[in-house]
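Incident log, support desk, overnight shift.

02:14 A customer reports that sequence design results differ from what the structure should imply. Their input is reproduced verbatim below. On-call engineer (initials T.W.) acknowledged and began investigating.
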């Protein structure tokens, strides 16, 4: 993410279209939800943006059933991208979950990964071990 967009506060904002896609609803539905007070948007010019925290809350509410036919595919929206010279950290909100992926910066650039982009996290692992001492 460029320093300019971070200074403007866009790092935490998701465009209404990306939020609608992540939630599986139309933009018109989100506009109705805004009028009824169910969601709130920040306006920048004539565009609407939702905070990633609010999107995460809505995805959690809508995904509470826990049913999915694609067990290792988690669709969501990218909420943060941190790049250095070699690596990139991608944070995706997928329903009630936050998935973090580490990849080469080149791969992240080639995929056009940035906040607000819809993406799917595909997890291929048989074991996850976490220890603390």
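02:41 Re-run completed on a clean worker. Output:
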């Amino acid at each position: 993410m460029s320093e300019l967009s971070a200074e403007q506060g866009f790092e935490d904002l998701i465009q209404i279209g990306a939020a609608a896609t992540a939630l599986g609803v139309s933009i018109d539905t989100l506009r109705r939800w805004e009028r009824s007070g169910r969601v709130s948007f920040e306006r920048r010019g004539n565009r609407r943006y939702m905070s990633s925290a609010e999107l995460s809350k809505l995805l959690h509410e809508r995904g509470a059933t826990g049913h999915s036919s694609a067990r290792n595919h988690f669709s969501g929206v990218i909420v943060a991208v941190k790049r250095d010279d070699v690596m990139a950290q991608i944070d995706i909100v997928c329903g009630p979950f936050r998935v973090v992926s580490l990849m080469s910066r080149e791969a992240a650039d080639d995929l056009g990964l940035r906040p607000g982009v819809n993406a799917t996290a595909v997890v291929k692992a048989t074991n996850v071990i976490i220890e603390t001492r």
